[in-house]
Amino acid sequence: MLLLSGRRTAHSYLKIPIAFDCTSFCYIRKQDDLAVLIRQTKLILWDEALMTNKLAFEVVDRTLRDLTDRNEPFGGIIFIMLGDFRQVFPVIPRGSHADIVYASIQNSYLWESVEVFHLSENMRASDAVVVHPNLGNCTFADWLLCLGNNELETIDEDYIKCPYMMVLPHADTQAMVVAIYPRLHEGQATNEYLHERAILAPHNKEVLLINAIVLSYLPSAQVNFLSADSAKDMEVANTYPSEFLNTLEVSGMPSHKLLLKIGAPVILLRNLDPLAGLCNGTCLIVRRFTMRVVEVEIIIGKGASNVAFIPRIKFISGNNGLPFTFARKQFPLRLAYAMTINKSQGQTLSHVGLHLGDDVFSHGQLYVAFSRAKAPANIKVLLPDTVHGRSGLMRNVVYEEALL
Ligand SMILES: Nc1ncnc2c1ncn2[C@@H]1O[C@H](COP(=O)(O)OP(=O)(O)OP(=O)(O)O)[C@@H](O)[C@H]1O
């Protein structure tokens, strides 16, 4: 059996193109070692499959049919997709409800070859067996199912009551930081302490603000690393000066300003060295830095406790809804005290802060956020400062037609 260790993604391993359509193939030639391995493969497991655009599966399907010379789904290799239809669906930038559902594997030509098996027990919440009046006299696991299936009582169409026990009494970000990261100012946080907690928010802009606030609690000295941003095209460079480019936040790119302190947890934004455990999404702790390199320790997974040196690298903005592309040279790092709800999918956390400065906006986000925790007592929710939020209500978006 071959396991993709070090959190290596299927996109990276199977060489799926970054931009793909219904005619694309993976970059694997018939004589490559990977093609030989694929021809010997009997079973492929793909986790978080429902977050993946159906076109990516179709690219893999076409490639496997070609490499194996067998005109069957995935070239006859048994393909197990793991996922939960209550969780988030593929991200389609500026996509509508219909666009998002259309991009899900259910709407692929492959779906007619899929057999669905249901898992029945929530192992993550298996210790939270107490029936709680705040949860409508349900266990946490049953309440989560009702949340994900849109079976909780709704008000104003898609608002539901946040269980009172989880509502943060002082509705501000500082209170959230103290609740989720107690005693951080003492500077004694262990790898385990950092790895088992996170503050989740729907949007990146809130995540950046929360990260900066949490970092301010750390007693070590702060350094601000600025990126070098430039437009390739002279005409674009004259229209959009680098001061303007500095203000842009682009998905998958680090920020222009990267605030770091020794002891801060960060997420790697690039597959730098998968064999050494340095992949997109790897959790690291900053140990030392100079202006040219950041020394980090891998927190968990392949290479845990190993030290690595992260250089600045060049990111190209690509097709991100901007009318031009630009380059940003920066460390491929982002602070990891807070992350988007979508990024948290797949994780298990002991302490979850849900920062709803803005309500969730897409299918399954509220379910994913609450279901990261093992028990309801360790979830703290900051409700939006809106009429609904002040009444203890939060938005839940569920595309019911897509639930199985
Ligand atoms: N058979 C089991 N016995 C005990 N604990 C388990 C078992 N299976 C899973 N767990 C625990 O449950 C938690 C969630 O497991 P896992 O991450 O595999 O779930 P998942 O189905 O991928 O969830 P999600 O997609 O929501 O992230 C982990 O903490 C794991 O250790």
Describe this structure in words.
The chain has 404 residues and is of the alpha/beta class. The protein has 13 helices and 18 strands. The chain has helices spanning 10-13, 33-40, 54-68, 97-102, 140-148, 173-180, 191-195, 204-216, 234-239, 242-246, 341-344, 365-370, 387-390; strands at residues 43-46, 78-81, 159-161, 197-201, 222-226, 228-231, 257-261, 265-268, 283-289, 293-298, 307-311, 313-316, 326-330, 333-335, 338-340, 351-355, 379-382, 393-395. The strands form six sheets. The chain has a five-stranded antiparallel beta sheet with strand order 11-10-9-8-14. Strands 15-4-16-17 form a four-stranded parallel beta sheet. Strand 1 (43-46), helix 3 (54-68) and strand 2 form a beta-alpha-beta unit. The longest helix has 15 residues, at 54-68. The structure holds adenosine-5'-triphosphate (ATP). Adenosine-5'-triphosphate (ATP) binds next to loops.
In total, the number of strands is 18
Radius of gyration: 22 Å
Q: Which bin fits the share of residues in helices? A: 10-25%
Question: SS-based structural class?
Answer: alpha/beta
Shape: globular
Strand order across the largest sheet: 11-10-9-8-14
Strand fraction equals 15-25%
Count of helical stretches: 13
Distance between the termini: 30 Å
Major β-sheet annotation: 5 strands, antiparallel
**Average pLDDT score:** 92
Q: Domain count, please report it.
A: 3
| Low-confidence segments | none
Bound compounds: adenosine-5'-triphosphate
